[in-house]
Design a protein that fits this description.
The complex is a heterodimer of chains A (354) and B (565). Helix content of chain A is 51%, strand content 14%. Chain A has 17 helices and twelve strands. The longest helix of chain B is centred in the first third of the chain and has 23 residues, at 104-126. Classes of the chains: A alpha/beta (354), B alpha/beta (565). The A-B interface holds A 1, 5-10, 12, 78, 98, 101-103, 105, 146, 148-149, 175-178 and B 384, 396, 400, 402-404, 406-407, 409-413, 417, 419-420, 423-424, 427.
Chain lengths: 354, 565
């Protein structure tokens, strides 16, 4: 292990991997109380941070140091925040794997699922997925590295609002109390509340599944529907999330929390978010391909719809919103038809999971 | 492709018995028992946050439960002075309660004195009574006696009683990582975790350990086994300490865990049946009892805390499966299981090993008629479930060296975190279950039972298990040709799993299918009054006892083979 760790204690810098908008916001919040070291892949970004205290134009606390060496970051820090988009998650995790030790606490803030295909299967053609082929991000970390004390950060945390210092809260979930406590100690402030939850899988799933509902919310807005429809969607979406989360190994109560309902409400009211935009443009008559051509990053919800739809085929449960969205996105169903089909769907009971 | 089992003679790894950790422990028994009692007391006080009110409550609860146990569930093995002891505890508690003049601190001291008495008594009760002379004698009796019996039965004719043609190792095959376990036993401390299907397991494992040339392991044996004198003798001789499953109170459980942890730290190789009890259903344990397992993790952390970071302080977890064609207690085990899952009655312990006569009769049958047993020794792991190499170093999936100590560190030093260790225990439990499935050795009898049951179930797919068991015998016939073809399909899948390291098979499964089936039918549950699977006059397969068939079929549960039906 790094000699640096042997001799020191509380004064270790906190590591942040990834300087996107969320990573930057978290790094700045951490830097209020702690020394922070961030990792960026590109030399010029590292130089920009170290000399101008900004990352691609976003302002960074001058105390934050940057490195492009995964080894240096892992050797210097005991706690690491992994703040990268889900598309790059596996690759970055593998880059860090050789330097991560069992003593590291790793907290990630990524909302996505990874898929492990059986031999001979292609992602483009795969129709069915079993639970053991689907991994949450914490499961990816545990599979790919020696870190076991893993946590996640989830909740309604729009980066812009965090950067402006508006009040907000988040959930740190981990099986390990020490991870939760460390996360709370590092992040809690007058403007930022941090809740703990032991159901990490449930919290991760909440953050992932709400993206599906966010696409649907965008679609409703695109169709010009009003607040009644939105209320209906949010409540039915929550029911669907609860069932899916349970089938994938989370608890229903996490869906009821800040990372579930809390984030769901925020997402369904954020016209700027990518998932919402995809739904909105679908409703305006564009196809998925047309939308993807003009969008910088993939909206995570699109992937999630595919994965969850394939999972439904092996799980023996129904999830009408996801199934209909899948038909809109990847088959030829129109948004109007999907809405019709949902309105006719026999939801006979209001709440059937509590 | 019959493989020859090597009937290896293993040299003892520690020739002088004075060097055996278990002998050293026996020599220091008195001090050790005292230490365990004191440490347990500290542990309990920590757990209750040193709160006098909670301590008082815990003492009263323990007293109440113990009095109830003495009254409602007495055993032969219970000491005569139990009533007296708990009577005294009661008086002490009453006295402390009634003395109004005592200060709070004084009262706490008085309660602590009562606690100390209880942990001392439990610690004494749990501690093993290992005697090296008894051990040697028992070993000789088991090996010599059994091989006499075996030769008398197999080699016909005059003088056969003195033949050495067959040894116990012809009947009980030891396979797997035998060299590694011997190697590691000289370097660190072993915790062996076997599957548990029969009461015979304890003696069998004791014998295996001695054949492998290792010093005796200590292990927690159910106190109920000490009710039977022949078992009690064996157990004591093999280094067993006593686990009383009737006592579920905090003080007893903490003393038991402390005993186990301290013994491991003392360097005694240990053995737990992590399933806690015999598998009632015949399914390989999938949920483990984590109480004793957690002591392995605690002991490992404590060694690190004391700065013993080299291999001498390392604890190696070694999963073992015991594979039988025939489990003597199967009829009562499966009845227990069915009544538990059927939720009809409360569960009552009742088994064939109820007296020495029945055990002797079984052993005689076993050695004269034969029923092979194999014991698979798995790869060693550290307490986090990482595989360990021959030098005792942990390795990750990519074969990089892992420093186990780092799992217990925060901010650069080893820390105590009970919640963390609870999680680690769960992870270790899962790893052990995975390894059980990998080293489980399929026998012909498991195959035929599995296929027959699944075929019957497939034909009656609207029925649940309880309906199936109530089916009349005429409905339980399986045509031979269909049966044979299905056996082949399932076996092909088993070999596929084996090629991926997910299961193991006995060499007799490489014979032609007709022979495998004959072998399986001869062996599956061979000594039961009602046989789980036989051929009828027309050559088709019938069962005389559907629940037994279910029991033997369950051995192959957990591999997804059901999907072939």
């Amino acid at each position: 292990m790094g000699m640096a760790l042997k001799n020191s204690s509380e004064s270790l810098p906190i590591g942040v991997i990834g300087v996107g908008s969320f990573g930057t916001a978290i790094a700045n919040m951490l830097a209020e109380k702690n020394e922070v070291m961030v990792y960026a892949r590109k030399q010029e970004v590292v130089d920009e941070i170290n000399s101008q205290h900004s990352a691609s134009g976003k302002l960074l606390n001058p105390k934050i140091r940057a490195t492009f060496s995964p080894e240096e970051l892992c050797e210097s820090c005991g706690v690491l925040f992994l703040m990268i988009p889900s598309a790059a998650f596996l690759e970055v995790t593998r880059t860090f794997a050789p330097f991560l030790h069992p003593f590291h606490l790793v907290i990630h803030g990524t909302k996505g699922l990874a898929v492990q295909l059986a031999e001979g299967e292609q992602w483009d053609t795969v129709k069915k997925l079993r639970r053991n082929q689907i991994m949450t991000m914490s499961e990816v970390i545990i599979q790919e590295t020696l870190a076991v004390r893993v946590g996640c950060l989830a909740g309604p945390n729009i980066s812009k609002e965090l950067s402006n210092g508006q009040p907000a809260a988040t959930v740190i979930a981990s099986k390990y109390n020490e991870v939760i406590q460390e996360g709370q100690r590092l992040l809690r402030s007058e403007k930022f509340q941090v809740y703990g939850n032991f159901d990490i899988i449930g919290v991760e799933l909440s953050g992932v599944l709400k993206n599906i509902i966010a696409i649907a919310a965008g679609a409703l807005a695109g169709l010009g529907l009003g607040e009644n429809a939105k209320g209906l969607l949010i409540s039915r979406g929550m029911v669907e999330m609860a069932h899916l989360s349970k089938a994938l190994g989370g608890t229903v109560s996490s869906v009821m929390g800040l990372a579930g309902v809390g984030d769901l409400v925020t997402s369904c009211n954020s016209p700027d978010s990518r998932n919402f935009t995809v739904g909105y443009r679908l409703a305006k008559g564009e196809t998925l391909n047309q939308i993807l051509e003009t969008i910088e990053e993939v909206a995570e919800g699109v992937n999630t719809v595919r994965i969850v739809d394939a999972f439904l085929k092996t799980a023996g449960i129904r999830a009408p919103i996801t199934e209909n969205l899948h038909r809109v996105l990847f088959e030829d169903l129109s948004i109007e038809e999907a809405l019709q089909s949902l309105m006719k769907y026999p939801f006979s009971v209001d709440v059937d999971f509590v | 492709m019959e493989e020859n089992y090597s009937k290896h003679q293993y040299d003892p790894i520690l020739p002088k018995k004075d060097e055996w950790p278990v002998v050293k422990l026996a020599r220091e028994r008195k001090e050790f028992v005292k230490k365990v009692a004191e440490l347990s007391e500290d542990r309990i006080l920590d757990l209750i946050g040193k709160n006098p009110e909670i301590l008082k409550e815990e003492l009263e609860t323990t007293l109440y439960r113990e009095k109830l146990r003495i009254k409602q569930n007495p055993w032969d093995v219970d000491p005569d002075d139990e009533g007296l002891f708990w009577g005294e505890v009661k008086n002490s508690l009453l006295q402390i309660h009634s003395e109004v003049s005592l200060s709070k601190a004084k009262k706490f001291e008085a309660y602590k004195a009562v606690l100390s008495k209880i942990t001392s008594r439990y610690s004494e009760e749990i501690a093993s009574n290992f005697k090296a002379t008894h051990y040697k004698f028992t070993r000789r009796v088991v090996t010599y006696g059994f091989s006499r019996l075996l030769n008398a039965a197999r080699v016909k004719g005059f003088g056969s009683l003195f033949s050495n043609q067959y040894t116990l190792q012809d009947k009980i095959q030891i396979t797997g990582q035998t060299a590694q376990i011997r190697e590691l036993a000289t370097k660190g401390t072993i915790v062996m975790v076997p599957t548990h299907f029969s009461n015979l397991d304890s003696i069998l494992i004791g014998w295996i350990i001695s054949v492998l040339g290792m010093p005796p392991f200590i292990y927690g044996a159910g106190l109920n086994l000490f009710n039977i004198s022949i078992f009690a003798y064996f157990m004591n001789a093999l280094g067993a300490y006593k686990v009383d499953r009737r006592k579920k109170n905090l003080m007893y459980l903490e003393t038991l865990k402390t005993y186990s942890k301290e013994a491991i730290q003392f360097g005694c190789h240990s053995l737990f049946f992590p399933g806690g009890t015999r598998s009632r259903s015949g399914i390989i344990e999938s949920k483990l009892k984590l109480g004793l397992l957690s002591t392995a993790i605690e002991a490992q952390r404590a060694n690190f805390q004391q700065g013993i970071s080299d291999v001498s302080g390392k604890i190696f977890i070694i999963p073992v499966t015991i594979n039988y064609h025939f489990v003597l207690e199967a009829p009562s085990l499966i009845q227990d299981y069915l009544s538990q899952t059927g939720q009809e009655r409360y569960y009552k312990e009742n088994d064939e090993f109820s007296n020495s006569y029945k055990i002797s009769k079984f052993l005689f049958k076993f050695f004269t008629k034969g029923s092979d047993i194999s014991v698979s020794i798995g790869r060693a792991m550290d307490v986090m479930g990482n595989y360990v190499d021959e030098d005792g170093n942990s390795r990750d999936k990519w074969d990089r060296e892992v420093n186990t100590e780092e799992y217990f560190m925060s901010n650069g030093k080893v820390t105590v975190d009970a919640q963390r260790e609870e999680e680690y225990t769960q992870t270790l439990g899962k790893r052990i279950v995975e390894e059980f499935h990998k080293i489980n050795r399929v026998f012909s009898s498991h195959l035929v039972a599995f296929v027959a049951f699944e075929l019957i179930q497939a034909k009656n797919d609207k029925m649940d298990l309880f309906d199936l068991i109530r089916l009349p015998q005429e409905d339980l016939v399986v045509a031979y040709e269909e049966f044979k073809a299905t056996c082949q399909r399932v076996l092909d899948k088993i070999f596929e799993l084996k090629a991926n390291g997910k299961i193991d098979t006995a060499p007799h499964l490489y014979r032609p299918m007709d022979e495998i089936i004959t072998h399986g039918l001869e062996n599956v549950g061979m000594y039961h009054a009602k046989r789980p699977l036989i051929k009828d006059k027309a050559g088709n397969l019938v069962t005389e006892d559907m629940s037994l068939l279910y029991f033997y079929h369950n051995r192959l549960h957990g591999y997804g083979l059901e999907k072939l039906f």
